[in-house]
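Lab notebook, entry 204. We have the chain sequence and a SMILES string for magnesium ion, and the next step in the workflow is to get a structural model of the bound complex before anyone spends time on docking refinements. Request logged below.

Task: model protein plus magnesium ion, output structure tokens.
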Amino acid sequence: MLVKDSKFIISAAKAEQWPDDELPEVVFSGKSNVGKSGLINALCNRKNLAYSASAPGKTRLVNFYEINGVMRMVDLPGYGYSKASKQETKLYGKLAERYLTQRKNIRLIIQILDIRHDPTEDDLHMIEFLNTIGLPFVIAVNKCDKLSKSQAINRARSIAGMLDIDPDTPFILTSVTAKRGMEEIWDAIDFYCFDQEDDNNETE
Ligand SMILES: Nc1nc2c(ncn2[C@@H]2O[C@H](COP(=O)(O)OP(=O)(O)O)[C@@H](O)[C@H]2O)c(=O)[nH]1
Ligand SMILES: [Mg+2]
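Result returned:
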């Protein structure tokens, strides 16, 4: 999709604040600092749309961004947020969990991992959770600019082997700084948000 218009809608602290319409939503999930906001910015060709630095505190809420008036990107609170107290972590975890289990608009989840590190226990729990809720997800292994191309491919392979996922799950190497993998992510977004509906319409 060519992004012509992208705007921040709301940082929701409770479900009552979720936008009340049928727009498809793509969710960005991953631990703090893995690049959730950066990926949203890169996909939208914006510098600061979703940057936490410009919105202190909002990273622990569910942030909604509307794209071209036809879909939304949703920046989930990062898990493993070290600065939050245990109680806060639990609360924000609940916000994310409620959103993921109750929100009807979700078409796709982009689960982001750091290519340099093995998945954390939190990452593995999150992926287990994604398997149980049954919504489509892809894995983005981000920060691949930090490694050489061959190192990145090897790391991605070894990370894939550590995950309990369907072997068909798309595994996309991404870099916010080098703008890598953006087309592949957009392909997945377009497919899950729009193409499937088009296919249905064609066969009617
Ligand atoms: N080198 C590199 N740095 C990245 C990449 N993605 C994010 N970062 C940096 O990692 C930090 C956290 O990114 P951010 O998008 O705020 O992570 P979030 O907490 O998951 O939203 C920032 O300093 C980003 O500039 C990437 O692909 N490559
Ligand atoms: Mg963020």
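Notes for the group: Residues 6-198 form a domain with the Rossmann fold fold (CATH 3.40.50.300). Worth checking against the assay data. The mean pLDDT is 89.
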